[in-house]
């Protein structure tokens, strides 16, 4: 008897509305009803089915399948308006592999050592601006830090007019496109209509154009300089060559830089906001982390922070409970593939679902609770725990993001006496493509 994947019985438009309105509630609801794999029609009744998969064996099959079995960029339309056609998340095949080979070296391995002091320095600069005994919003502070980190490390920009203009424009664009109603436009291309500067899409296009103008100006200026000794990512990409000796074009550089900026700024800031909430709202977690920091000297160096096991466990548990992205990049089936005894035909869309995998009770007992100890006591496979996706489409900034989270949080925890202001229970809500606390979390700096 042919095996079938359980399917949602509701109307396609209702499925789409539920997913966009509250994706976590969507996954919780249907995981409880159908298990770790289910079929949806979120793209419409006449569109191919979309299969969400959280079972490790299914995830492994997808992540380890030959690249030519799937097509990927075609289902990433939500990112195209700001990332561009040459962004790594939009590409397929050899072109994707080429860009990936050029991008990975600056964002991993020994290269991280060039960035650690800058991350800590920028973090200290920002927290020194916080007034004593006055409530401040932690997510806003994290967004300021992560944006400055990206502008310095990715673009190589220091304080100056261009950096200030980019900060202002990027902040304005993100505030707009992360509004739930506004961000819905990215899911429906037919709603992307320019009705002038005061229309949502028209305003986005004009601000995006202003950002592009600044980025292209920086690229052109840097091409005329000696960047051989520079350590920022733009300089490294300017000098990078593929196997045939070809360098990145201006558009390729722009699209990769904007992808790193938008997908590496707001996402990391949101995860750090969750991290602060969990640590400071759960006394046992705070106490254990404080005990670990006692072993360090005052103002610990970055290397010491990176190696702290409980801090590492807190980062990983934060990314497990509410990962930066709830899904890994969708795959469009090109050749029929068999997964767990079920045959998936061409045009079907397979989505390794990070949230479903991270909330399988068999692997993560009490999955709705924040329990960092699970990462001290267990080892999880890359198909059970994959907060940055996996396979040949894993996030190229994964190592950098985790590195940044440890350094930003560790630097603040080691130097400031913070406490939650007006403690509230918060719930996860969608903000653009990220999941953030439902309430703006405020802290007070005591010293």
Automatic annotation (TrEMBL):
Annotated residues for binding of heme: 395
Pfam families membership: p450
Record has Iron as a keyword: yes
Sample GO molecular function, one term: iron ion binding
Domain of life: Bacteria
Gene3D superfamilies in UniProt: Cytochrome P450 (1.10.630.10)
Reported cofactor(s): heme
UniProt keyword annotations, A-Z: Heme, Iron, Metal-binding, Monooxygenase, Oxidoreductase
Family: Belongs to the cytochrome P450 family.
Record-given protein name: Cytochrome P450
Organism: Euhalothece natronophila Z-M001
Taxon lineage: Bacteria, Bacillati, Cyanobacteriota, Cyanophyceae, Oscillatoriophycideae
């Amino acid at each position: 008897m042919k095996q079938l994947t359980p399917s949602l019985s509701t109307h396609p438009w209702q499925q789409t509305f539920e997913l966009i309105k509250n994706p976590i509630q969507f996954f919780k609801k249907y995981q409880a009803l159908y298990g770790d794999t289910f079929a949806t029609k979120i793209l419409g009744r006449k569109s191919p089915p979309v299969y969400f998969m959280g079972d490790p064996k299914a995830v492994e099959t997808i992540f380890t399948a030959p690249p030519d079995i799937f097509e990927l960029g075609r289902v990433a339309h939500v990112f195209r308006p700001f990332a561009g056609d040459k962004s790594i998340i939009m590409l397929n095949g050899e072109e994707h592999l080429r860009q990936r080979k050029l991008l990975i070296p600056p964002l991993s391995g020994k290269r991280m050592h060039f960035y650690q002091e800058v991350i800590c320095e920028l973090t200290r600069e920002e927290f020194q601006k916080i007034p004593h005994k006055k409530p401040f919003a932690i997510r806003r502070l994290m967004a300021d830090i992560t944006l400055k980190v990206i502008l310095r490390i990715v673009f190589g920009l220091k304080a100056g007019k261009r950096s200030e203009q980019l900060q202002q424009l990027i902040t304005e664009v993100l505030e707009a496109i992360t509004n739930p109603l506004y961000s819905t436009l990215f899911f429906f291309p037919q709603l992307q209509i320019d009705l002038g500067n005061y229309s949502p899409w028209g305003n986005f296009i004009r601000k995006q154009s202003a950002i592009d103008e600044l980025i292209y100006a920086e690229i052109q200026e840097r091409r005329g300089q000696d960047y051989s000794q520079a350590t920022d990512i733009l300089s490294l990409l300017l000098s990078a060559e593929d196997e045939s000796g070809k360098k990145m074009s201006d558009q390729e550089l722009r699209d990769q830089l904007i992808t790193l900026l938008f997908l590496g700024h707001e996402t990391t800031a949101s995860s750090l906001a969750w991290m602060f909430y969990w640590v400071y709202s759960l006394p046992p977690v705070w106490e254990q982390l404080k005990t670990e920091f006692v072993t360090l000297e005052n103002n610990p160096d970055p290397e010491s922070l990176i190696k702290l096991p409980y801090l590492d466990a807190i980062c990983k548990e934060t990314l497990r409970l509410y990962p930066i992205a709830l899904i890994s990049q969708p795959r469009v089936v090109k050749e029929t593939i068999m997964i767990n005894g079920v045959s998936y035909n061409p045009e079907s869309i397979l989505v390794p679902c990070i949230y479903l995998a991270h909330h399988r009770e068999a692997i993560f007992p009490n999955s709705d609770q924040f329990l960092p100890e699970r990462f001290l006591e267990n080892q999880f496979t890359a198909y059970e725990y994959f907060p940055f996706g996996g396979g040949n489409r894993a996030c190229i900034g994964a190592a950098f993001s985790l590195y940044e989270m440890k350094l930003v949080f560790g630097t603040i925890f080691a130097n400031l006496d913070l406490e939650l202001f007006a403690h509230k229970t918060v719930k996860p809500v969608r903000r653009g493509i990220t999941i953030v606390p439902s309430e703006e979390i405020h802290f007070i700096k005591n010293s």
